[in-house]
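Course assignment 3, question 2. Fill in each field.
Student: A.L.
Task: Predict the tertiary structure for the chain below.
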Amino acid sequence: MTNVLVTGGAGFIGYHLSNLLLRKGFNVTVLDNFSDYYSVKMKQLNAQELEEAGTKIIHGSILDPESVNKALSNEIEIVFHFAAQPGVRYSTANPEKSLRINIEGTSQVLTICNKKKIKKVVVASSSSVFGLQEYLPIDELHPKNPISYYGVSKLTVEKIVEITRRLYPEIDISIIRPFTVIGARQRPDMAINTFLSSALQGKTINIFGDGTQTRDWTHVDNIVEATYLMGTMPNARNEDFNIGSGIRTSVNDVLKLISDETKTELKIKYVDFDKADVKDTLANITKAEQILKYKPQKSLLIAIRAFIDDYLKNRSTFTQ
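Answer field:
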């Protein structure tokens, strides 16, 4: 059985990735600091479920070399690095924290991976590295001009990966750039969670802009399937992939879906568009389709339904 490490494994994407790896028969170790950026109880629930399924949970930070060394001490063969300080808007208010955790943390993980002679690492970047789109759909060659501190932090992460590849060719590092990930256990600050939880509680939903902006809303299961393929397929060596659904949908259309699924009349308030946000996103997934044989299987609607089911089941945990 292959031993793998998922950093940030108690978080949204990391939790789903860890579950997939367990189903695939891997021995999974998770490193997470259980940050209070959002509900610690949600992360504890994620970790509890993973631990009950056989995952080893290590409580520690990617900024702490002792924690990273401990996490990599169990004959780890593949590392999936998803630990980060997320949030475009959060980074506007807290640039130093976003930059330090994402840049310094990733540098430390890669440095220790190299010392431990780890052969394969998948690093999570973000579609935020592209900034304002010059064309759609956005392929891997699209210019990278981030307009948020978060985007800058992730672009710097990519530059660190590029340098590590060049200096240490024996280590294989792939980069995944997810586009607007959605689904059960989503972070409370993310759009679908905000929309749905507000709808289910009868609260007003604040929409930045007029709602015509579009996103490539991508089911988390599609993201983690692509991540798994990147970590296990030899032809993904040192490659970067944009991963989305290949479909864009406006915020207003998403609100309509949510209204239909929750059978509620939404209370919506449109506010000024956030300058750190982009107007439209859409992933060109041709490269992933060709190299990884990636094919997104789950839709926006399935993600909304999965979120509703999980939220109603765990409402007391998610609203604290």
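Instructor remarks: The CA atoms of residues 77 and 118 lie 6 Å apart. The chain is about 45% helix and 15% strand.
Grade: pending
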